[in-house]
Amino acid sequence: MNANQRSSVAPTNGRRRKVVALLVETSNEYARGLLRGIVGYVREHRPWSTYLAEQARGDEPPAWLDHWQGDGIIARIENPRIADVVTRSGLPVVDVSAANLVPGIPWVETDDQAIAKAGFEHLIERGFRSLAFVGDERFNWSNWRRDQFVGLARERKIEPAVMHATVVPRAGHEWIEESTRLARWLVGLPKPVGVMACYDLLGRQVLEACRQASLAVPDDVAVIGVDDDELICELSDPPLSSVVPDAHRTGYEAAALLDRMMGGEIVEAKPHLVPPLGMMPRASSDVLAIDDPDITAAVRFIREHALDGIDVNDVVERVPLSRRVLESRFKKLVGRSPHEEIDRVQINRAQELLRETDLSLVEVSAKIGFPHAEYLSVVFKKRVGMTPREYRKQHRGR
């Protein structure tokens, strides 16, 4: 075993530990989230001895894998060389890449349609009726996100602009060319425009192109990314809003599948898709692009006070509109009724509290302005598709 490998301590209690190779890069936040999910599964169930080679995305597989004697592999199969090595191993393998280079094995991935929907809804909620998507067509997951984003926009009678780009390090002639190309495209879009980039690094590049073109962010161009890589997002100027994938659960599910396979179970070779956790809003999309000051005021009031237990009558008191006119214009511009918007803000906060705290359901209800826990359970299941307890159990690993 070379210096770049990691291995856990070997067997205890007389039962041989399973030995698992992890071909997952450590160079980005999403992949590290996968690894944390794998660790979470192992801690909750049975210990494995793990081999982890420090590598970047798409690197060649480590040389030791050619003659490695183990029990299973979890891999980001991102190139033909990795695909060949894991196939020849004859071992149980779970793929955690969207490339799907080995169709005959199960793979666990983020739900890219759900990711695109989360980004789309974030921009629609802010009133954008001009939309755009920046993707990298080399990757399946980018193309899936693009197709879903475009489809959702067209359902709203919006024809989004689409640009394909490649992340280029900020140095040399290539960066200048790519940034200039992005800037020219952004200048030609109708304003204000909400732009979804297929992942955070490309989102940051879009922000730099906006600066080069003297476009105000978020007033002229609001930008969101995907992955919620905190360092990349916070180092962006302004800080980048991002869709938060549930990488932890993805890694956890991959480990659970591999455990079943190493136990002799036959697992169907199909995709296992994990929905995102939601949005992490930051300054790059902190704007309301609604050309109606009364509805803008109503939206801001709801988002600032929904957790206080307000109802639609409280909103009516804040704007010079009758309830009927408010609801009609609100629905037309926001896509939801004022009551639905209040529920949305409350349930989103409930999800955060269920994931991140040990508060009881009664305490969660009180913190989001619901009269009692039973009512929360009914509304939560209607909106999320599961009960609060089921949701908490599903995300407990985080």
Automatic annotation (TrEMBL):
Q: Which Pfam families match?
A: HTH_18, PBP1_XylR, Peripla_BP_3
| InterPro entries recorded | Homeodomain-like_sf, HTH_AraC, HTH_AraC-typ_CS, LacI/GalR-like_sensor, Peripla_BP_I, XylR_PBP1
Record keywords: DNA-binding included? yes
**Keyword Transcription among UniProt keywords:** yes
Q: Which residues form the HTH araC/xylS-type domain?
A: 296-394
Q: Which UniProt keywords apply?
A: DNA-binding, Transcription, Transcription regulation
| GO molecular function term, any single one | transcription cis-regulatory region binding
Looking at the record's lineage, which domain of life comes first? Bacteria
Recorded protein name is DNA-binding transcriptional regulator
Query: What organism is this sequence from?
Result: Humisphaera borealis
